[in-house]
């Protein structure tokens, strides 16, 4: 473990401004989150390297235990593409003599919680509620891949919720974070697991008994993670938080009927067959009996994952990628004049290279994608900078609309002709 040297802090208990990590000074750029026992910061080393630091508070309840717990779990499960990468651990010594234990982690992007908030904010802008089937499918597959791996290794995440599922712009997938409540199945060492609103019935019972000083025979299993994911997917599809619905008598009496009602009220927005596949998949995750709940491995075999979908334009704005898609730039007449077309290609490449290293640039002459400009950058950070600076600019009197575009779709030549 690397020992951090003296580093400046604002004041005791305040947000640190610097961390010394592995002999190098990293500057704190922003606080990303704060909990009872730890805070998470975005840090930069000054060499265009960014990461996240999770700093555990020594005086807080369970702070030191939480550090050792999360460190041991993360070190044991490293290497899966849908689980956050742990770069290292270190001790931070502040200038006021306090020492805190820290994890240096991969920096990720937008969380599913933020995506749900954006979906709710945009309901008035379009008749369709919730997120596209493309995003629901993408998130479901990525999280199930992570859970299948985690469960094969004998671990239960035990705190799956929208805030703990984050998008990776570099790897173009969703990843799980926060393993502070995780445990080896059969060796549960925490009494209170999962977050209200995403807590499985058996975990609810166990938590209630523990609060009353009683102990339930047996422990929660990996099935609690499938329950949480089922709720997350239902919220993504409906665009509605389900916490109050789950407290209702209707849910208690017949949750399957409530799920049918949610899907029935939103069935005009999607084709019927894939919607029925998604509904059945979610129902299989939300069986009240944990023994009847589907496993992550079995859920991945659902026919829902065999159908291709297109994303909403809002989702392409929110999910960073190394590829940008520029709209409202090219007139049809420019595409059919070879000299003008070549000039436009050169001009666009020259302009886009101002913001980062351009790997490729494509302007299709025919549909799908006719007249749209696709720019692949060497990194997602370059693309994010370009998207920020290009959006709203005018070229030849036209306002530029810049969204991200899925890297794999671009590389395969799959250009969405229309977006739902």
TrEMBL record:
Chain positions recorded as ATP binding sites: 54
Biological source species: Mugilogobius chulae
Family annotation (InterPro entries): Kinase-like_dom_sf, Nucleotide-bd_a/b_plait_sf, Prot_kinase_dom, Protein_kinase_ATP_BS, RBD_domain_sf, RRM_dom, RRM_euk-type, UHMK1
Protein kinase domain residues: 26-305
A GO CC term assigned to this protein in UniProt: neuronal ribonucleoprotein granule
A GO BP annotation: regulation of protein export from nucleus
One MF annotation (Gene Ontology) recorded for this entry: RNA binding
RRM domain boundaries: 322-400
Classification via PANTHER family: SERINE/THREONINE-PROTEIN KINASE KIST (PTHR46962), SERINE_THREONINE-PROTEIN KINASE KIST (PTHR46962:SF1)
Alphabetical keyword list: ATP-binding, Nucleotide-binding, RNA-binding
Full protein name: Serine/threonine-protein kinase Kist
